[in-house]
Amino acid sequence: MSITGVTLVIGASGTTGSRTAGQLIAGGHRVKAATRRATPVPGTEPVRFDWGDPATHADALDGVDRVYLIPPPGDSDPASVMLPFLRQARAAGVRRAVFLSSSAIPEGGPAVGMVHQALPGLFDEWAVLRPSWFMQNFTGTHAHAESIRADGAILTAAGAGRVGFVDADDIAAVAVRALTDDRAPNAELVLTGPEALSHDDIAAIVMEVTGRPVVHRPLTHEQLRDRLAAFIPLEFATLLAGLDRAIADGAEDRTTGTVQLLTGRPPNGFRAVAERELNDSIS
Fold first, then answer.
1. How many degrees, rounded to 5, is the angle at CA 60 between CA 232 and CA 137?
2. Partners of 67 in the beta sheet?
3. For the stretch 25-50, what's the b/e string if a residue is b when 16 or more beta carbons lie within 10 angstroms of its beta carbon?
4. 135-151 residue pLDDT tens
5. Helix axis angle, 112-122 to 79-91, nearest 10°
6. Which of 35, 72, 138, 222 has the greatest count of CB atoms below 10 A from its CB?
7. Mind listing the pLDDT tens digit for each residue in 33-65?
8. How far is 54 from 57, CA to CA, in rounded Å?
């Protein structure tokens, strides 16, 4: 791994962005940390960045040669704002782009799938990270973690479907390699943890680790859609509820060796992440 120029990390205060920025800094790389309020991130140059405000884009891109891309949250059409930015990035001298997509949405699919499809045509050096669902959904500020804390329950329309949940630390470790290795992956990388677990399995592990009762409460697709639509646009709520239905049908019941292949170590399991993070976050 060689020391690179400057990496722009979009969403540098978020779940994977903060970890990617931290791991880049620990490796001796220079980072511009892009957030809506230019939030200070130790060891980085903070810069204001808002997907919805193109006036912030030029300053963010100034002097960088690679970028870690987090799509605008809650946007069912991220390509409409991301593709103009990516063209601007290429013109400004960015030569490598690593994009955080999703294992649940293929190239050319809805939302992030359209950005995935366009990326190889915009940059000679690229990678699309397609992680499975985050383990941190049960430990941080996600709705699952909130309902665990408030009600001792995980609510999904995923039924008994299993998911290869992945640790955000492992996603960041792969992102750092994709950003800084001498040769870019130029590929999509499906990232999972070491085992596929149902939400009943997750509830049982959370209960064992924290000592608090936790259950998985199944919802119908329509119940989940309507519940989500109280907080986000209906179109995006429908998309998310559909992803849960896909889990119930077995779409995420898989594991890959990509984390080990890229980082040289096995991915973290959910119990280890729960023991590392849950006791503090649940208390």
1. 35
2. 8, 97
3. beeebbbbbbbeebeebeebbbbebb
4. 999 998 889 999 999 99
5. 20
6. 138
7. 999 999 999 999 999 999 999 999 999 999 999
8. 5
